[in-house]
Automatic annotation (TrEMBL):
Protein name, as recorded: 3-oxoacyl-ACP reductase-like protein
Keywords, ordered alphabetically: Signal
Comp. bias regions, Low complexity: 22-48
Highest rank taxon of the organism: Bacteria
UniProt signal peptide: 1-19
Region feature Disordered, mapped onto this chain: 22-50, 120-157
Bias kind Basic and acidic residues: ranges: 126-135
Amino acid sequence: MKTTLFAALLLATPAALLAQTTPAAKPKPKPAAAATAAPTRPAAPNPAQVEARANALTDNMQKALGLNPQQVEKVRQINLISVRGVETARQTYRQDVRKMAAVIDDIGQSRMAMLKETLTPQQFDKYQRKREEKMGVPSGQGAQGNAAPGLPSRYEE
């Protein structure tokens, strides 16, 4: 009886394995609603979130740079336009990362140009330094002649 049971298991096992794997190998059909649905336009960015982010940026800049009331309003409008543009780009180009990055870079450059016109030269320099520090851009002093950690400098041989 043990031999018969063992033989039955050996013969049934390949069939059982094939029976379990064959249906999984077939591609599953897509739901009809998803296949026939028209592409939807990306939703507009949430105005409350955009305004909150722009106000937070403006408040931080006011504290860090000592903006006067006229500058605060101009900077708030610049930040509002920029944040709205970035959020729209993120939603519009979420499938095309390169295009999204290019659009966001353009928005950042135009924001910097508008800020340069609004801020005093001293305020803009301070803003640039803080921005570079936050983004991890190496300063001119650190980038001159220091070897990367673990690598010999050109003077050691």
